[in-house]
Amino acid sequence: MKKSLIATLGIGRKTWGHVKRLIAEQDWDKIIIISNEWGKQHFAPDKECEWIMVNDRSGFDSIKSEIKNKLPEGKIAISLISGSGKEHMALIAALKEEGRDIELVTITKEGIKYY
Q1: What is the pTM assigned to this prediction?
Q2: Average pLDDT over residues 22-46
Q3: Structural domains of the chain, with CATH
Q4: Got the DSSP string for 23-91?
Q5: How far apart are CA 38 and CA 57, in angstroms?
């Protein structure tokens, strides 16, 4: 069974290569990127992605609700390698409130690993 990828994407471009490789090296059902307008304008994924646009000046509950409203069905893998703690916390809180099971996903020299 395939799964969806949800990745946070911050303004620190050093972590973008990791996110880009995760997107490219797996056949995902759906790819959702949580970022801001600047990230969307400057990040060029190799596959079609849905975006959850957040304003980091918004309150925590606002960001969490925005994410919660766009959670996909089925299995979810999340990558928190990029982005800010506020977005990470909002994503985790949204998933917990919905009672969703998740896997953490990362990419290493040996390939994709799940935790």
Answers
A1: 0.93
A2: 94
A3: 4-114 (3.40.50.10770)
A4: HHTS--S-EEEEE-HHHHHH---SS--EEEE--TTS-HHHHHHHHHTTPPSS-EEEE-SSS-HHHHHHH
A5: 14
